[in-house]
Structure formats: structure tokens, C-alpha cells
Amino acid sequence: MPRSPVPVLTIDGPSGSGKGTVCRLLARALGWHLLDSGALYRAIGYAASMAGIDLSDAGAVTRCAEATRIRFRDPGDGGETQVIVNGHDAGDEIRTETCGAAASAIAAIPGVRTALLDLQRGFRRAPGLVADGRDMGTVIFPDAATKVFLTASAAERARRRHKQLKAKGLDVTLAALLHEIEARDARDASRAVAPLRAAPDAVVIDTTGMSAQAAADKVLALVHGR
Ligand code: C5P
């Protein structure tokens, strides 16, 4: 008898839609693995910048993506997942807005997306996977049983990012963040490969004014078929 595939729950959406927090809550509630695919693009953006590569040089960035070793490590103390890039814990560096912008630039290069394909699909392990990204439901796991697209107004998303970054001691203004978020969204939605969009079979949830727990509860109800 053919074995049923490992279940995948895809959560796509723009930056600041609450995906990261909601996905962590979901992975914990379901006892499933978690793929933070944005961290992979950030890691490549970081590695390319560290190597002094011109981010608009598609060939050089693709070679860098193919050569970069990325691992996630749970610190085991409830702290943030460490992102080990070529043996160095780059968890803090990759969370900056500069690195987010670098990630968004290199994510438009088809060779980079191809280089990360198998790595991402390899996260699909029993008992299940919560996949956080932009193209999880459209490209990486098109056969996922449950697909969700989280959105929120740009103003609310900028406010959330502002709170997160301030908590980390990073100094950014709300106006600059709103500008950055709008620019990143426009770039992610308009690129030729794997643009940011909801899969036709995704359920769209607007999280404006909604807590992360309330959003996670809505998604859990979908997973459990209620
Ligand atoms: O989700 P996060 O903000 O960490 O993602 C950083 C950037 O990586 C996004 O702006 C997007 O350009 C890119 N990305 C992507 N595909 C994914 C995840 C992230 O293109 N699956």
C-alpha cells in the first residue's frame, strides 16, 4: 500500500504579516517541524555580502548560493533558532532590515531559488511540517494539504516589525520601516520567478488587529477540518 505523504501546512504572505510568530505557535501546537525559508534567503544574502559579491551579479550570487552551507540549530533554552552559515552563527546579522533587503534582491535570481529547492523539500519529515515563506504553497509544496496566506495592512506590518526590532535593541524609525516594507512587497510581488501571491487553493487570513494566537487558532481549525 502506498504510504501517505508527510503532511505539510504552508503559510505564505508578505513581511510583517505575523507569519514567523504564527508558524512557531503552529509548529509547537501540532508537534511538527518548522521551515523558516526566509532565513535561507537571508543567509544567502548575508553570505554573498560577506564575500563582497555584487548582489546584482546573478551568476556570482547563484554560485555563492550553491556553495553556502546553512543549518538551523535549536539552542535548547527556548531562545531563537540559530542560523549557522558556513559554520558561523549568523542568527543576529540575518534578522536586520539590511539583510532582509539583500534577501529580497537575491531571491529574484532564478538560480538562487533552484539552489534552495532540495534543501527546503528536505525539511518535510514525519510527523509533519509547517512551512513559512512566500512560495511554499505555490512552488515548494504544491501538494500541501492545508495552505494559508496571511496578510495585514502595510501600516500594521510596519508597526509589528518596529516593535520586534526595538525589542532587539535595533534603532529604526517607523516611517523608514513602512517605506522598506512597501518596497520589499512590491519587489517580491512583481518578480518573474515565484512571485509573492496566494496559491489558488490557499485560505487568505487578514491578521490586521488580530493577535498571533488568534491567527494560529484560525489556522489550527483549518488543519483539523473544522
Ligand atoms: O520572510 P523573510 O522576511 O525572512 O524573507 C526575507 C526575503 O526573502 C523576502 O522579502 C523574500 O524576498 C525572500 N523570500 C522568498 N521566498 C521565500 C521566503 C523568503 O523569496 N520562500
The percent of residues in helical segments reads 40-55%
Looking at the structure, what is the overall shape? globular
Q: What Rg do the Cα atoms give?
A: 17 Å
Number of spatially distinct domains = 1
Tell me the CATH superfamily.
P-loop containing nucleotide triphosphate hydrolases
Could you tell me the strand content as a percent range? 15-25%
Mean pLDDT: 93
Sheet having the most strands: 5 strands, parallel
Number of helices: 10
Low-confidence stretches: none
| Order of helix and strand elements from N to C terminus | EHEHHEEEHHHEHEHHEH
Total beta-strand segments: 8
- The strands making up the biggest β-sheet line up spatially as 2-6-1-7-8
Instruction: Output the CATH topology.
Output: Rossmann fold
Short overview:
The protein has 226 residues and is of the alpha/beta class. 46% of the residues lie in helices and 15% in strands. β3 (70-73) and β4 (82-85) form a beta hairpin.
List keywords for this structure.
five-stranded parallel β-sheet, three-stranded antiparallel β-sheet, globular, binds cytidine-5'-monophosphate, 10 helices, 8 strands, alpha/beta, Rossmann fold, 226 residues
What does this structure look like?
There is one protein chain. With 226 residues, the protein is α/β, with parallel strands linked by helices. It has a single domain (8-225), classed as P-loop containing nucleotide triphosphate hydrolases (Rossmann fold, 3-Layer(aba) Sandwich). Helix content is 46%, strand content 15%. It has ten helices and eight strands. It has helices spanning 19-30, 37-50, 58-67, 97-106, 110-115, 117-121, 136-140, 154-167, 174-190, 212-223, and strands at 8-12, 33-36, 70-73, 82-85, 88-89, 129-133, 146-151, 203-206. A five-stranded parallel beta sheet has the order 2-6-1-7-8. A three-stranded antiparallel beta sheet has the order 3-4-5, covered by helices on one side. A hairpin with a 2-residue loop joins strand 4 and strand 5 (88-89). The model has no long low-confidence stretch (mean pLDDT 93). The structure holds cytidine-5'-monophosphate (C5P). Residues 15, 37-38, 41-42, 100, 103-104, 107, 133-135, 184, 188 line the site of cytidine-5'-monophosphate (C5P).
